[in-house]
User: Which sequence fits this backbone?
């Protein structure tokens, strides 16, 4: 991403008390004028119409968080975001801390071919297909994976081999993302903190979250971090994870909210047309199955914070999920979902 450098180094910033107030003010107003004169192509846009409408354009230097309970689709969404970024010719720099690079690349290949990554990674496709059909499918998958290593794709996609995050590895990756001209710097997920050296994981997590903001601003990046929601907050209710996340659910939520320009919470929502009290009681008593109460093939996304559009906080939108692939709903389906009317997933 070509971006005007608007941020001063930390040494100069900390030295402001020894400088003339007019010099500080003129420097700040010059930066402000540069910011409003950015080219429109310097603003990042999330690659789903529903998300772009909810979050809005992302200026260089903004950090966003995508939060969700375990198993609610954070990596599914992020890998779909990455695939779309690459497909539209932009560059994504990904640090997939929850998946090995080979697994993450397999997910991307499956999304490009509209295949279910879980069925490939667990051998189900191979087990269920005839040898001839499996051989043909394997050839397609291999060709797509090989394509990721071509010079054209290398310019659009970098998957970092980093396995745990601390301040040092964060700085290395952020600097590399800047150097390769990444349009998006993506960490999935930020809570995989390196340990074992005597450092407190909580203290290191605070340092990492603060440094994410510093580096994003210093390098003019558009940064997206996925983050875990705390299951302790809903452990007494088996349906709690299928309701709109609250700020106190976010792990280290106060620090992340403080440093973020925007924050979304994703969740598999209960049927929008409503569920019967008897069904809810059955699930909470351990007799019923929660998945039967969910809106099928649907991911809900709530805007938990927006620095630029505070009036949108609390708004939500919906994305279609089929075979692990996230897409926009068509306009009619999205309007029905926003009105609380269940509908069969229809993809653009």
Assistant:
């Amino acid at each position: 991403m070509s971006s005007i450098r608007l941020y001063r180094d930390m040494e100069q910033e900390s030295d402001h008390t020894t400088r003339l107030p007019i010099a500080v003010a003129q420097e700040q107003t010059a930066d402000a004028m540069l910011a409003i004169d950015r080219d429109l192509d310097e603003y990042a846009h999330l690659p789903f119409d529903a998300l772009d409408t909810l979050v809005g354009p992302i200026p260089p230097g903004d950090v966003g968080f995508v939060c969700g309970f375990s198993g609610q689709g954070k990596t599914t969404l992020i890998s779909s975001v990455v695939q779309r970024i690459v497909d539209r010719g932009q560059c994504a720099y990904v640090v997939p801390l929850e998946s090995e690079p080979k697994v993450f690349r397999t997910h991307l290949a499956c999304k490009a071919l509209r295949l279910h990554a879980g069925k490939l990674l667990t051998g189900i496709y191979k087990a269920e297909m005839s040898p001839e059909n499996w051989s043909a499918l394997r050839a397609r998958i291999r060709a797509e994976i090989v394509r990721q290593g071509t010079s054209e794709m290398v310019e659009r996609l970098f998957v970092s081999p980093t396995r745990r995050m601390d301040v040092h590895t964060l700085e290395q990756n952020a600097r590399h993302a800047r150097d390769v001209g990444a349009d998006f710097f993506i960490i999935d997920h930020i809570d995989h903190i390196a340990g074992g050296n005597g450092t407190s994981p909580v203290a290191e997590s605070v340092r990492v979250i603060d440094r994410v903001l510093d580096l994003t601003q210093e390098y003019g990046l558009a940064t997206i971090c996925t983050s875990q929601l705390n299951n302790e907050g809903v452990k007494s209710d088996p349906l709690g994870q299928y309701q709109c996340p609250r700020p106190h659910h976010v792990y280290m939520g106060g620090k992340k909210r403080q440093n973020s320009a925007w924050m979304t919470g994703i969740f598999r929502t209960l049927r929008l047309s409503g569920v019967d009290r008897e069904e809810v009681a059955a699930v909470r008593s351990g007799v019923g199955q929660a998945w039967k109460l969910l809106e099928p093939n649907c991911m809900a996304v709530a805007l938990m914070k927006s620095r630029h559009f505070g009036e949108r906080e609390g708004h939500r939108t919906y994305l279609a999920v089929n075979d692990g692939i996230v897409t926009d709903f068509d306009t009619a389906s999205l309007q029905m979902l926003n009105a609380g009317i269940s509908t069969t997933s229809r993809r653009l």
The CA atoms of residues 22 and 28 lie 10 Å apart. The radius of gyration is 22 Å. Strands lie at 62-68, 92-96, 157-159, 184-188, 222-228, 262-267, 298-306, 316-322, 325-328.
